[in-house]
Amino acid sequence: MWLTAVVLQGCVEPFTPEINESQESLVVEGMLTDQSGIQTIYLSRSSPFNYPGFIPERYSVVWIVDENGTYYQLSEQEEGVYQLYMTPFRGTSYKLRIITTDNQEYESDYVMLPSPCPSIDSIYFEIETRETEDPEEPLEGIQFYLDLEAGEDEARNYRWELEETWAYNAAHIIQYYYDGVLHNMDDPFKYYHCWYTGRISNIFTASSKHSVSNRIYKYPLHYVSSETHRLQVRYSLLVKQYALSDEAFEYWDQMRMQLQESGGLYEAQPPQIRGNIYNVDDPNELVMGFFSVASVAEKRIFVDIGREFHYPRIKCILDTINRMDEIPPPVYFPVYMRSLSPMGTGPPYGVGRGICFDCRYGGGSIEKPDFWE
After folding, report:
1. Residue 334, preceding peptide bond in cis (omega within 30° of 0)
2. What distance in Å separates the CA atoms of residue 185 and residue 226, rounded to the nearest whole number?
3. Which one-letter DSSP state was computed for residue 369?
4. Cα distance between residue 292 and residue 359, in whole Å
5. How far apart are alpha carbons 73 and 70 in whole angstroms?
6. CA dihedral defined by 44, 50, 52, 58, rounded to 10 degrees?
7. Cα 72 to Cα 117: distance, rounded to the nearest angstrom
8. Contact indicator for 251, 276 with CB cutoff of 8 Å
9. Closest CA to 224 of 165, 168, 170
10. Facing residues of 7 across strands?
11. Cβ partners under 8 Å of residue 66, min gap 6
12. What torsion, rounded to 10 degrees, do the Cα atoms 46, 51, 54, 56 define?
């Protein structure tokens, strides 16, 4: 989750908030979890209101420090992305320490790794039709839900992160390609099947702290509509569940409420909610983000109901040619094509835009994920 949201869409008249464009607050995202593996901290700067975007904070020195004074240094693997392979110890407290390139030093409070996170009982979905501005064009899709029932002595504060993956296909296979010379494609389906994975930026929090039972029933996650082609072939949702301290839950729940109630005022400026990270020499400086140490559980669901919905038609009309000099301009190599002959090979050929033949134009990868069933 990058700490950005959406520009407010006024109901009556335009509203331009007064925002100090020169103030670029440090934004810290990340947590230490009880899962053995790569721990990740993202550092960035809040972007100007009129120019939203991710501004990585590069070349910083970043450590995880335990209560015994042991330092674990993270390295910058990508711009603003700092990582370390580490397994924290339960019952031990950790803090985050950062020194930026302008020699500003930031620290978080110490946070203890809590008891194990309860497991997720079930993730499921229901087909739902939602109203739109056009009553004759309702929105079709599926709404995901989560159920959880834990012991009385287990964690009661939860946050969920969602990651979606969907399979999709190009409109046409590639039988031939032309780069000045016509070639047969060894595998016509090489760029036909793709998978796309992305994080869902919404904030999901809930607590059973004030309930008699430690149970959360039919908690609404996100909605996937048929406006896109996500559900058409196959869809998968990974839900990561974090058990949070009271302080961490309060922060994330406030973030959730402010983003919802503001209508997305802070597209470029994160909501002004203080976390547990501060400038050592200037405690009044606004630092965005909260460093958590959390236990985690996760569960994945696959969805195969794509044929039940109507999807927008993909405009991939092919031009018909018999010779390569008939390829309509502009010509960018390689030119993909398929046979339109009743025999399935040879001319006439159908040629079109790369996006019609190569699924990678949709942002996905032809590498099948390891978890894909």
Report:
1. yes
2. 33
3. P
4. 38
5. 10
6. -30
7. 24
8. yes
9. 165
10. none
11. 72, 88, 89, 92, 93, 94
12. -70
Q: Residue 9 is encoded by which pair of tokens?
A: 């869409």
CA distances to 145, 247, 254, 275 from 257, in Å? 19, 16, 5, 15
User: How many C-beta atoms surround the C-beta of residue 105 within 10 A?
Assistant: 14
Q: What is the 3-state secondary structure (H, E, C) of 264-327?
A: CCCCCCCCCCCCCEEECCCCCCCEEECCEEEEEEEEEEEECCHHHCCCCCCCCCCEEECCHHHC
Q: Which amino acid is at 195?
A: W
pTM: 0.84
**Is residue 290 within 8 Å of residue 252, measured between CB atoms?**
yes
The end-to-end CA distance of the chain, in Å, is 27
Taking only the tens place, the pLDDT of each residue in 4-34 is 333 333 333 443 444 444 468 999 999 999 9
What secondary structure does DSSP assign to 214-265, as a single string? -EEEEEEEEEEETTSSTTTSEEEEEEEEEE--HHHHHHHHHHHHHHHHTTS-
- Give the tokens for residue 244: 């949070």
Residues of the chain below pLDDT 50: 1-22, 264-270
